[in-house]
Amino acid sequence: MVAITELSKNHSRYKWFVTSSGKMVIGGKSAGQNDELLKIVASIGAELVVMHTADPGSPFSVILASPNKLKESDLEECATFTACFSQAWKRNKKQTAVHIFNSTQLYKTSSMAQGTWAVRGSVKKKIVQLALTLKVQKGVLRAVPFTNKSSKKVTIIVPGTIPKEDMPAKLSLELSEPFSTEEVLAALPAGKMRLMSQ
Prior knowledge:
Strand order of the largest sheet: 1-2-4-3-5-8
Shape: globular
Radius of gyration: 16 Å
Low-confidence stretches: none
Helix content: 25-40%
Largest sheet: 6 strands, antiparallel
Distance between the termini: 39 Å
Number of domains: 2
Strand content: 25-35%
């Protein structure tokens, strides 16, 4: 679909990452962007997988691939991404619930607040751990969902007590190449955090 290709090309406007199997995931940075993104997705007419935390205050995350081409790992990673960039991180939660549904189930009425959408029918629920690791994707430093598949030592970022603005200095020792403070801060979720090693 042309519109999906366009969304993928314009991924940098949104929160984004690429799953371990190569699927692009994008999510709104704000209530306004959530609305914008879901209106585009609704206009496409194709069925796409969409996620949002069970609690308010998260991006609507969309996997830009046909549902029948997705692996379980794509769903797990998208759910983790959605959770990590939600209010759950700011609330220092270790895990949270994410709702999974199809884009064709979404609808919005004129009385709904900005960024708010409703879902028809049943939703799947996945409980995920809030854990990220830093990785370069498409030439940009990203905080991506941590998976246990890596055989090498990986620095894991989880909710904690260290202010976000203090993280670039702490992470400079962990990163294999130098990144600016701005690049590191742009990659990380809002809220406090701490580092762990695998």
